[in-house]
Every structure is written in C-alpha cells, then in structure tokens.
Design brief:
By secondary structure, the chain is mainly α. It has four helices and no strands. The chain has helices spanning 5-27, 37-54, 58-72, 81-104. Helix 1 runs antiparallel to helix 2. The longest helix has 24 residues, at 81-104. The protein is elongated, with a radius of gyration of 14 Å.
Length: 105
C-alpha cells in the first residue's frame, strides 16, 4: 500500500518528538564517561527516520518501525531504561495506528 504524504509527515514528526525526548533525558542525566547507550538509541532513531523518508510502501514503514522498536529493546536497561520504554511505547502505538489504517482500507 503506498504511503500517504500526510501519514509519512506524521510518522516523521512523531519520530522527531521521540528523539527530542531522548535528547532531553540524556541532557538531564549524569552520564558516566564512556557511556554510549543514549548515543546508540539516538542513532537507531535517526536511522529509522532516514529509512522511512525513502520508502514508498506503508508496510515497509511498519516494518522499519518494528525493527527500530526491537533494536531499542537492547538498551532498555540502566540510565536509558525510562527513555527507551517511552520511545518503544510511542513507536508501538504508531505501528498499531498504521496497521489499523491498512485494515480499514
């Protein structure tokens, strides 16, 4: 199913919001030297956004979002736990919304 521009815009906007929340969490956390989990989370979200910008199929968007949520699960511990839980919840809600759109079409 082709990706509607307004749907892509909303997904990208929501991903920007998720990235901003992770950045806020990172910037308000005392991070030990060498701690890279926040950067790994942000890189995953950035890669997800970049991929979605380039696909034309709604099911591909859903798979990219699912993959990002799974990858983020790797860093759902320690200092990043709360930020990652929120990010994954928001991504999973986007997937649910997109799947409902497909079922309704």
């Amino acid at each position: 199913m082709p990706v509607l521009q307004e749907m892509r815009h909303k997904v990208l906007h929501d991903l920007d919001g998720i990235q901003s929340a992770v950045l806020l969490s990172r910037n308000s956390t005392k991070i030990p030297t060498g701690y890279q989990k926040f950067e790994l989370v942000l890189t995953t979200l950035s890669g997800c956004r970049h991929s979605i910008e380039r696909v034309e199929d709604q099911e591909q968007v859903i798979e990219i979002l699912r993959d990002a949520s799974r990858k983020l699960g790797l860093w759902e511990i320690g200092l990043t736990e709360t930020a990652v839980k929120r990010a994954r919840r928001a991504i999973d809600e986007m997937v649910d919304t997109l799947e409902a759109m497909i079922r309704a079409a």
